[in-house]
Amino acid sequence: MSMVNLTIDGVSVSVPATYTVLEAARKAGVKIPTLCYLKGVNVAGACRVCLVEIEKARALAAACVMPVSEGMVVHTNSPKVRATRKSTLEMILSDHNRDCLSCIRNRNCELQTLADEYSIRKITFEGEKSPSVYDDKSFSIVRDGSKCIKCGRCVAACNKQSIGVLSFLNRGFSTSIGPAYDVSMADAPCIYCGQCIIACPVGALHEKEESEKVWDAIQDPTKHVVMQVAPAVRAAIGEEFGLPYGTRVTGKLFAAMRRLGVDKLYDTNFGADLTIIEEGNELLNRINNGGVLPMITSCSPGWIRFCEFYYPEFIPNLSSCKSPHQMEGALIKSYYAEKKGIDPQTIVTVSVMPCTSKKTEASREQHQNTDGLRDVDIVLTTRELARMIREAGIDFCNLPDEGPDMDLMGEYTGAGVIFGATGGVMEAALRTVADILEDKDLPTFEYKSVRGVAAGIKEAELTLNGKQIRVAVAHSTASARKLLDSIREGTAPSYTFIEIMGCDGGCVCGGGQPQVPAQDLMDIDIRAERAKALYEEDTVMPERKSHKNAEIMKLYKDYLGEPNGHLAHELLHTHYSPREIYPDSLAE
Amino acid sequence: MGKTKMTPEEMSAKLDAVLATHKGEGQKALMSTLQQAQGIYGYLPLPVQKKVAEALDLSVAEVYGVISFYSFFSLKPKGETVFTVCLGTACYVKGAQALLEKIEESIGVSSGDVTKDGKYSISACRCVGACGLAPVILVNEDVYGRLTPEELPAIIAKYKEAD
Ligand code: SF4
Ligand code: SF4
Ligand code: SF4
Ligand code: FES
Ligand code: FES
Fold first, then answer.
1. Domains of chain A from N-terminus onward
2. Considering the entire predicted model, what is its pTM?
3. Which residues contact A554 (CB under 8 A, 6 or more apart)?
4. A305 partner at 20 to 30 Å CA-CA among A27, A56, A150, A396?
């Protein structure tokens, strides 16, 4: 690799020739502020917050797009740089709805942080505010145009997903960000993955908040609140309380949820273990009875919407299994209600999820029983739960370690935990399917070739009891698109089973997880940090295969009967239908 | 109006022919494709945007975004009689906004729209290069300069009589 020597604020550094000034400065330990830059997503040079002075250059340069060159002398802190940055910030703020106090990103906003760092005290060019929309019609995503600084990070994030729901609309003072015709997110071909929310530096995009509903249910003595939490949450919620990236906080998480006052507390890992039993049996049925293959997982509602909108011909390939928290919700209102003698009408099921798409998933009519009872009543994101914990005054970091309630549906295995990372569902399924096909308790069951984030598509091939099983794992809808295109064109090998997750890295980087500041993302791969926490939990669990979950086995014996049997189908399986992209009526 | 109209099938076939030459070309082919599509249809309705997006391998929002950026692209069909009001700086300071509002009121639709019967449409544009005549409006290809709102009814009536 050819290297280049340059000086930044008097510090000499040697960096690869492909670096930008921003990256070189990072290496030299010099911090340059950024706003529109998001590593690996958006490199646009649009906001001009990262301006630096380069000796012998005529004008100030945007560090995030300026390539380094030999002998370059850079000043990041000259009076001219500071003054220009300040007025750039003032410009942005002059057309911004600055109600930080009641803003969802208060204290966690890149713009607010910059305003603080640059001691912005007054906005000199106070002018007319540009027109903006407020859109909260979808179940998942709220757009607040009055907070938007048109940095384009969301547009780039959605394009990176290969979806392209968001675009710059109109021009000049009227520029805004939105779908075609500026329709609501409810009417756009959006999969609600929330990657745009994760990319947004400010409060212009966020989840549709539902925590008030949870508080109300907890207060209501006639309601029985059952809360469950997905595996990925434990790998990230610590960040909301200042803990280092990748800290596993399972024990404190359960302790905190219990202190909110819910009546029952479970882990979605139980539903994950159950999913493996149902999905594993579905796969074996398809293999043995000439069913549609490859079978594709159905845990990720972002992926499901992507399939329904963009690849409807693959709907027959989708596993009919509901996602783990939906299964668990359905059982809480049937099995649990019956065993505990509680009227299901009084039960409120709350799922804490790393995902914004789950909010819409829970509202699907396929996820209600015949009396119109929803499997899951309320879905909270990881961020919403963190807000509730703060609101309750709970000192998260000093909580003791606790666990879920250990009766009926509290047990889980290591296989359930790894669902939250890309490759995890595949590995969990293989652990069980291999044991069934080989008819023994196999001593080696870690499938490391499907782990990791370096490749968007991962593959493995194994022979089980003479049967060739070829599997693939894709994370992010862009990788899913690549994989499905290769299957469509006939260039892919014939897979038996495929895992697809809508988000890059899997659920640990879902749209409901804590936002990581762009500056931190320059140094770490958040996908790997959070996944580590889950694989660590897997190794400490007494049981690491879903079919060894004793409560699951009891559930089949006492209630469900056979896997994929009649009652299992009624409660735990679902169906899908194609969706139309921008129906022509939208333009009228 | 002199031009012979194409049938919807003819328009669609023509568009398909254009798109066939730009398959998968993305952003770089978008402007020219949209111009040709507008040449065929007279405007760019949603079904046309969807076809363009699909052919060029772009999202509908990207296509719509570009259309909304350039004022010479139109999302609505043009009327048989087209009123265009210049809102360039010179015209604006000489009161073009009042002219726009007066025409809107007289034909009953607002800027960027067409009347239900398809007869009249109105839109604003940027400087047409006749600042000396500000404020300027165009009716079809005819230019009217140094206009006052009081003179408008007579001009509008002239085009109403013509059909
Ligand atoms: S987006 Fe940021 S700067 Fe704007 S109001 Fe919210 S917290 Fe304040
Ligand atoms: S939620 Fe996902 S699909 Fe929808 S706009 Fe955001 S990034 Fe795009
Ligand atoms: S919504 Fe957020 S990410 Fe998108 S352009 Fe506006 S400020 Fe940037
Ligand atoms: S221009 Fe460099 S961060 Fe925006
Ligand atoms: S501003 Fe209207 S013609 Fe120039």
1. 3-77 (3.10.20.740), 93-207 (3.30.70.20), 212-292+300-470+502-572 (3.40.50.1780)
2. 0.93
3. none
4. A150
The average confidence (pLDDT) of chain B is: 92
List the 53-112 stretch of B: residues with Cβ below 8 A of A: 58-65, 68-69, 75
CA atoms within 13 A on the CB side of B129: 0
- Per-residue pLDDT tens over the stretch B94-103: 999 999 999 9
- Between strands A497-501 and A467-475, the pairing is parallel
ipTM confidence: 0.92
What's A157-180 look like in SS3? HHHHCCCCCCEEECCHHHCEEECH
HSE (CB half, 13 Å, CA atoms) of A78? 15
**Banded model confidence at residue B125, pLDDT cuts 50, 70, 90:** confident
Q: Give the per-residue pLDDT at B2.
A: 41
> Where would I find the H helices in B21-59?
30-41, 46-56
User: What residues does each domain of chain B span?
Assistant: 8-69, 81-162
- Residue A489 forms contact with B (CB below 8 Å): no
pLDDT tens for A369-401 read 767 899 999 999 999 999 999 999 999 999 999
**Which secondary structure element, helix H or strand E, spans residue B161, and what is its range?**
helix B152-162
List chain B residues with CB under 8 Å of A188: 61
B133 touches chain A (CB under 8 A): no
- C-alpha B12/C-alpha B43 separation (Å) is 13
pLDDT digits (tens, 9 = 90+) for A247-286: 999 999 999 999 999 999 999 999 999 999 999 999 999 9
A171 touches chain B (CB under 8 A): yes
What digits encode the pLDDT tens for the residues A423-462? 999 999 999 999 999 999 999 999 999 999 999 999 999 9
To the nearest whole Å, the CA of A93 is away from the closest chain B CA by 24
- Structure token digits, residue A349: 């099921």
Kindly report the protein residue whose alpha carbon is nearest to atom 4 of ligand 3. A154
Indicate the burial class of B28 (C-beta count within 10 angstroms; 0-12, 13-18, 19 or more): exposed
A119: exposed, middle or buried (Cβ count in 10 Å: 0-12, 13-18, 19+): exposed
* pLDDT, mean over chain A: 96
Q: Does A181 touch chain B (CB under 8 A)?
A: yes
C-beta A46 within 6 A of ligand 4: yes
Among A498, A516, A505, A350, which Cα is nearest to A418's? A505
Give the distance from residue A165's alpha carbon to the nearest chain B alpha carbon, in angstroms: 6
**Angstroms from B163 CA to nearest CA on chain A:** 27
B4: confidence class by pLDDT, cuts 50, 70, 90: low
Residue B125 sits at the chain A interface (C-beta within 8 Å) = no
The CA A190 to ligand 2 mean position distance, Å, reads 5
Closest residue, chain A, to B65 (C-alpha): A169
Most A CBs within 10 A among B59, B71, B89, B113, hence the mutation to make, goes to B59
User: Domain B81-162, what architecture?
Assistant: 3-Layer(aba) Sandwich (3.40)
pLDDT over threshold 90, residue A587: no
